[in-house]
Amino acid sequence: MEYTEIELIQKAKAFDQSALAIIYDRYSTPLYQYAYRQLGNQQMAEDCVAETFTRFLRILKNKKGPKEHLRAYLYRIAHNWITDQFRRKTSTLETLDEQIEQIESDQVGVETAVLKKLSGQLLRGLLKELTPEQRQVIALKHLEDMSNNEVAEIMERNVGSIKALNSRGLARLRKLIEEQGIE
Amino acid sequence: MAEKDKTQEQETIQLLQKLKETTPRDPEKAAQGRQAFLSQAQEISKQPVSIPFFQRLTSVFNQPKSQLRFSTLTIGLILGFLLLTFSSSAIAARISKPDQPFYTYKLWLENSRLSLTTKSEKQIDLHLVFAEERLKELAEGSSDYSELGLDRAVHNLSDHVKALQSLLDEDQISDDQRERLDDILDQYDQYDEDELEDERETQTEDSSSGSEDDEPEKTEDVVEDEIDGDEEENESNKDKQSNDSEDSHHPEETDEPDEDDREPESTDEPDDDSSDNSGSSNEDPTETPEPDEGDD
Questions:
Q1: Contact yes or no for A71/A153 (Cβ under 8 A)
Q2: Tens-place pLDDT, residues B13-65
Q3: At what angle do helices A110-127 and A17-39 cross, to 10 degrees?
Q4: B93-120: per-residue pLDDT in tens?
Q5: Is B34 an 8 Å CB contact of chain A?
Q6: pTM for this one?
Q7: Nearest CB to A28: which of B19, B21, B33?
């Protein structure tokens, strides 16, 4: 049965198992990808998904939560969790063993793959240098391919400020890339 | 310059595309995550909810529209009931008299109105209206009211008059208001608290003196004694007169009166008729003139 987002929210607030299952199936993978693109670590991305849904359940239990825009709400929870991880300054980089393991399994040319991986991790490292809001805009707009309106909805801001954040974030990132000499 | 920026921006976006590539999610982990989430949901749904007080108050507005309509109806009914209760009690208070229970509420409402009025002109008007109302109440039935009811009304009237007098000193009263105040003051004199107090004191004194007089038994005794005494006196006078007349007939006993001077009681002894009342007659001050008669 197809539910609208508002119907899903109402049923989720009543802890309807089928509605909750639909929500998980619909949003867990996009959230996983969103987390992975920023963290570059499978396990941490899984942790992000698990923690996002746990927090969502607690919020529902306290009779709070979204009235509409469920996707935006879940992305906000995930973003906050990712920002917490960055603040803790724990290494979000995959261990070298993990990277080599994945490269071998991908059966791509080792040299090219390593370079690709390393440049990816360096980029993630540079993203960490942006403000949380700049990073969120860039991640949603350029990694998740969302429109300005969708990003504005998730961040609860107007489109103008999203454009400004995007512009400033990209400029800052460009500067950092030039400093690091990444191509 | 702007074009260069745009190109650089495009290059940066191009670089970011590298991050779009993700390793596919492990389906087993995804399934485990789903299972964990659903069982967690089931567990959490069974736990008791502790909603903060403020949230509980505002939760009515977060309810779905269908439930909200019911809640609005309930709230409307409660508010309506409260409004009805308040207005009916206000009306009851408005027509209450000093002896009635709602009278205190009436005075409280009046004081509240005064407190909420900021303009001095309006305050004066209210003081005048309330003072006139008190006078009307007192005129209608001051004699019927209990002391407490009367006190409350007079005390309140006094407050209004004092307030008006102070405002009068400050020349804030218009001519029309001054006329009304004069009328109030004329009538107020009879209810002036001090005068009423004096009156009460006087009444108390009167009642206490009245209680001293109120000894009917004693009074009767005294009256009886007095009557007895008078009768004895009259009889003794008669005896004396008869003795005198006898003395006049027996001149040799004229020395007797000398003895009577020393022992006036002895003159009574012969009167056997009055022997029963001798004690009281001796104590009776009305008998004191006898020695003088003896002297005579």
A1: no
A2: 888 888 888 888 899 999 999 999 999 999 888 877 666 677 666 766 666 55
A3: 100
A4: 878 888 788 888 888 888 888 889 888 7
A5: yes
A6: 0.47
A7: B33
Q: Given pLDDT bands bounded at 50, 70 and 90, which one contains residue B186?
A: confident
Structure tokens at A2: 């197809």
Largest Cα–Cα distance in chain B? 174
Both tokens assigned to A183:
């191509």
* Interface check B47 vs A, CB under 8 A: yes
Its ipTM equals: 0.81
Q: Across the A/B interface, how many CB contacts are shorter than 8 Å?
A: 103
Tokens of B275: 């022997």
Beta carbons of A69 and A9 less than 8 angstroms apart:
no
Partner-chain contact A17 B42, CB within 8 Å: yes
Residues in CB range of B250: below 8 A, 6 or more apart:
none
Residue of B11, B14, B23 to mutate when probing chain A, most A C-beta within 10 A = B23
Residue B41, min C-alpha distance to chain A (Å): 6
Q: Which of A29, A11, A36 is nearest to A94 (CA)?
A: A36
Task: Supply the pLDDT for residue A87.
Answer: 83
Three-class DSSP category at A22: helix
Instruction: Answer yes or no: are the C-beta atoms of A35 and A48 closer than 8 Å.
Output: yes
**CA B282 – CA B296 distance, rounded (Å):** 20
Pick from B9, B16, B23: which is nearest to A102 by CB?
B23
Q: Which residue among A20, A46, A177 places its CB closest to the CB of B29? A: A46
Confidence of residue A172 (pLDDT cuts 50, 70, 90): very high
Which of B23, B33, B47 is closest, CB to CB, to A50? B33
Nearest CA to A32 among A75, A93, A94, A83?
A: A75
**Does any CB of chain A come closer than 8 Å to the CB of residue B14?**
no
Whether B66 contacts chain A with CB within 8 A: no
